[in-house]
Amino acid sequence: xxGTASIPRLNPPLTxxxxxxxLTVLISxxxxxALRVPLLLPHxxxxxxxxxxxxxxxxxPGDFAVPPPPFSPEIFPCSQCHNEDQPTNKxxxxxxxxxxxxxxxxxxxxxxxLDCHDSDNRDQLRSASGEPIKxxxxxxxxxxxxxxxxxxxxxGIHGKRTGxxxxxxxxLLCVHCHNPHSPKFxxxxxxxxxxxxxxxx
Length: 201
Fold this sequence. Notes:
By secondary structure, the chain is mainly alpha-helical. It has a domain at 58-85 and 99-184. Helices cover 16% and strands 6% of the residues. The strands form 2 sheets. It has a 3-stranded mixed beta sheet with strand order 1-5-4, with no helix packed on it. Strands 2-3 form a two-stranded antiparallel ribbon.
């Protein structure tokens, strides 16, 4: 048409769906800022958690009595032989002199003597983190790998304990039943069944 100017087209008005989406985004952003989501905004100093401390082994309750460990005769204290006159050889190897009767069958692909025995003080054990452990508390050492057994042992499901049902008790250590170097029980031949009364003549 002659004599008419072209009128520029305006953007179409926002549809209801677009308005709803924009409104949802704005409200969500406001809620996230208000809640101070850690991914978006750091916590203020007064709300920050203290730095994590190095984990240590659980404490031993005062009435958690255990009998002495079943040491081999004339072998404890270990410092009778393992003293300052005998330097510590920390190299993993097969023992050819003392203790050659010990055959390690306890995760032997990954473990060796000094993973459990303290190289600086042979009269005690050591945790994976290097914390000293008394032989009388050897259950703490075992519990590092066998946490479920330690839990059951503490509440009396696993192992043996004696004493008062509602008072002090004495717990047998893991090593009273398990050889620490070869803890798996050896096969036991089954006993014959008991004789029935009618079979007695």
